[in-house]
């Protein structure tokens, strides 16, 4: 599903404008501005205390900001009580009524709206089929597994047909295997419904797997907003580079440039680096902070050439599908990840000398 044209106001499901929220001396949100497009899966990602849940609660109407604006579906919403906002929330704790059956839990919100019995039955049945819980209709919450409870909580929120579904770490209480299964189910469900999902998580894999776009938050601010590919391949700050996956960081000093390629001095020696035009101005300021992902570094043979450095293997960790190496290069160490494809003719061992190659296009520049 392709989100609507983001340049059009009608394409925006949620608009947050300079939202600020303080709790005593703690600034939970420091002027956060972002837009969520209609029909997209949008994730707020960051560590505990970064402000993501506070932002979700403000969208839901469960908290108010100290300043700023909020529009949902093009309508100014800060003065609307929670029950009048076109949103529903799914919590990590499920919040199911223990005395009601699955079907009764799902139908509860529809009964509060005083819909007809025929319409309640139609919509309840439809959403149970969609979430694959029809056989559980007569059970009570204490008879369900964690994954089944989460599906019921989702069905209860979806049945009310909100414009925006808010998900507050909904998979956090599940074991790893089940969590990964439900990540895919949740993503496919959102695509079928074409509903806007705003998802809060501290799990980077979860955000990268399910999201159309991700806002990485830190200390009440949005450090970077983009697609999972943009955030992983071209992080803007040290925090994003280290929070999303693994990353080798090292300092450098600008020497010269030729078009989009520059030369820099670094602890690894002189490096050639290909940068997008947007990073050139930052690079020419002198001191650089450079990064490269472990899987973007190659272990090679032959003579040293451009961006090739000799080092010594200090540690090897076998991890099934891949092997992880720690390489000592004298002034700096690098982490290298290599897939175990079975194509390497000669095995590598701790203490071996090895050559590493850093392709100019795989090195990125960080703001600090």
Summarize the structure.
The protein is α+β, with helices and mostly antiparallel strands and 368 residues long. 25% of the residues lie in helices and 36% in strands.
Describe this structure in words.
This protein has helices at residues 52-60, 102-112, 117-130, 146-158, 176-193, 204-210, 228-233, 238-243, 277-283; strands at 12-23, 26-37, 41-45, 67-72, 75-76, 87-91, 164-168, 196-201, 213-218, 221-226, 248-258, 261-266, 269-274, 287-292, 297-300, 308-318, 322-328, 333-339, 353-358, 364-366. It has 368 residues and is an alpha+beta fold. It folds into two domains: 9-238, P-loop containing nucleotide triphosphate hydrolases (Rossmann fold, 3-Layer(aba) Sandwich); 246-366, RNA polymerase II/Efflux pump adaptor protein, barrel-sandwich hybrid domain (OB fold (Dihydrolipoamide Acetyltransferase, E2P)). The strands form four sheets. It has a six-stranded mixed β-sheet, with helices on both faces. Helix 5 links the parallel strand 7 and strand 8. The mean pLDDT is 89.
